[in-house]
Structure formats: C-alpha cells, structure tokens
Design goal:
InterPro entries: NAD(P)-bd_dom_sf, SDR_fam. By secondary structure, the protein is α/β, with parallel strands linked by helices. The chain has 7 helices and 7 strands, in the order βαββαβαβαβαβαα. The radius of gyration is 17 Å and the shape is globular. The chain binds NADP nicotinamide-adenine-dinucleotide phosphate (NAP).
C-alpha cells in the first residue's frame, strides 16, 4: 500500500456521534460501506437503494433500509422526511456509461450528468436541512461525495462519466467553500479501479470494495477532505500533483490500450 496522500484535513470524526445515510447500497462500494459503518460505534445507518428487492438482507439492529432513487426528487424527499436525523451523508450511487465526445448525442451525454451530478446535488440540497439541524447538536455534519480519480483527467472510454464526476468534484469544492462557516464539512472520495460491477470490463489491478470502504472510513475519521482510498488512485493523484499533464498522458495510453 502506498503512503496515504496528504490533503487538507478537518478535525477527526467520531462515528459514535453520527447517524449515516448511504445511497446505492445494494451492491458494490455502497454495500461494503454499510457493512464497514456497522463495524464502527455509529448510532444508526440508513442503507438506501432504488430497488429494495435488490438489497441484501443484513439484519442489524442499527440498520434501516429505505428506498431512494437519486434521480427522482419525490423519492429523495420521502427518504429525507424519514431520515431527518442524518448527520453523515455518503453520496455513493452512480452510473458509468461509455460515451465519448466525438459521436455521442446530448441524450447519451445527459445520462451521466442526470445521475452523477444533478441526482447527487438534489440529494445534498434535500438533506441539507437535516444536516444543518444535526450539526447544531453534534459537530460536525458531513457530506461525502464518491467521485473518481477520473475527475482529475478524462479517460475517453468513460468520457461523459468522467465529465459528470469532474462536475461533481467542482460542485463539492464549491459547497465546501459555501459551507465553510457552518459546522457542515464536505469531502470528496476519489477511487481508482475497484472490483465492482462498474469496473467489470477493466482488466488491470482492482482494489476490493471492502478495502476501499475501510480506507474511506479511515479518511473520514481522520477528517481528510479529499480521500484517495486505494493504491491506484493514490499513485495517479501523485502523478497529477507532480504535473497534471502527466496524468492526461497516462490516461491517453490507457485509452489506447482499452481501444
Ligand atoms: N468501481 C470503480 O472502479 C469506481 C471507481 C471510481 C468511482 N466509483 C464510484 O463509486 C460509486 C459506487 O460504484 P460501484 O463501483 O459500487 O458500482 P456498482 O456496483 O455499479 O454500484 C452502483 C450503485 O449505484 C446505484 N445507483 C445507480 N443509479 C442510482 C439511482 N438513480 N438511485 C439510487 N441508486 C443508484 C446502483 O443501484 P442499482 O443496482 O439499482 O443499479 C448500485 O447500487 C459510484 O459513484 C461510482 O461512480 C467506482
């Protein structure tokens, strides 16, 4: 494992003070995050999925399962009305299409934006009253957005996905500045390849969702603003920090190999 990347920190976080809600929990990183959160002294975890029938039965006294489709404002509002004690919101739900930019139409390009950008922003806006209320009792409330290292340079085989995640990274930075005089902190989580359905076509080394989830919780506990939860994302971020054009060149090579 590479040395952890150092990015600016908030104070340390004590899970014992928090009630968490995670989006997109029926599989992949979201499911691993729920299992990892339940290993901490957390007060409660709301595990949400757009299709409850697909949610594995975890049976835990601190767990409540809720329906939440991040692209459906009515569904988000229903969940926010129930989970009005949330203080740690992890926006994990996402999709990845394989649209590039030369041939795709607006409808194709919009799919990634509708979920990864607008859907996530709608969740944040709808849960902000609950986060504000809980931050007045237990400092701080937390918004953690699962982005990707592909927000830092575009990989055209996942072109519109990377663009939508870059928009989400930018919105996360903007929110962090907008909220900096409040007790609500904003984190980004920027994985490299993680061994889930989303990365099934990637043939290189992948980190397990369980290892990624543990690293994400370690990053949140340490207060790390921008979390790189696996060796690949840590190495790629180090390249970007050295010279952002070098990460673009690395992704160009990866794109040629994938093509
Ligand atoms: N795997 C990687 O290599 C990787 C790398 C960087 C970042 N990420 C990010 O990590 C997050 C989790 O992805 P994953 O790797 O765990 O992929 P995954 O196995 O495909 O899981 C994606 C999850 O998001 C849910 N989802 C999709 N659209 C939704 C919606 N409108 N409302 C609610 N839930 C929705 C899916 O639910 P359904 O089962 O109903 O579709 C599923 O539970 C995503 O934000 C992804 O972009 C993944």
């Amino acid at each position: 494992m590479e040395a952890p990347i150092s990015t600016p920190n908030y104070g340390t976080l004590d899970f014992a003070n928090h009630t968490a809600l995670v989006t997109g929990c029926n599989r992949g990183i979201g499911f691993a995050l729920v299992k990892a959160l339940l290993q901490t002294p957390i007060k409660k975890v709301y595990a949400t999925a757009r299709n409850l029938a697909a949610m594995p039965d975890l049976q835990h006294e601190k767990l409540e399962v809720l329906a939440l489709d991040i692209t459906d404002p009515a569904s988000v509002k229903r969940a926010a009305d129930i989970a009005n004690d949330v203080s740690l919101l992890i926006n994990n739900a996402g999709i990845a299409t394989t649209y590039g930019f030369s041939n795709s139409n607006n409808q194709d390009l919009n799919a990634d934006m509708a979920t990864n950008y607008f859907g996530t922003l709608n969740v944040i806006q709808t849960f902000l009253p609950a986060l504000t209320a809980s931050s007045q009792q237990q400092v701080p409330a937390v918004i953690a957005n699962v982005v990707t290292i592909g927000a830092f340079a575009n990989l055209p085989v996942l072109g519109s996905y990377c663009a939508a995640k870059a928009a989400l990274f930018s919105a996360s930075q903007g929110l962090r500045i907008e909220l900096e005089n409040t007790p609500i902190q904003v984190h980004t989580i920027n994985p490299g390849p993680i061994d889930t359905a989303m990365a099934k076509d990637f043939n290189g080394d992948k980190t397990s969702p369980e290892d990624a989830a543990n690293a994400i919780l370690q990053g949140l506990k340490a207060g790390t603003q921008d979390i790189f939860p696996d060796p690949a994302s840590q190495a790629m971020f180090a390249v970007w920090q050295g010279n952002y054009k070098d990460l673009e060149a690395m992704f160009s090579q990866m794109n040629q190999q994938a093509g």
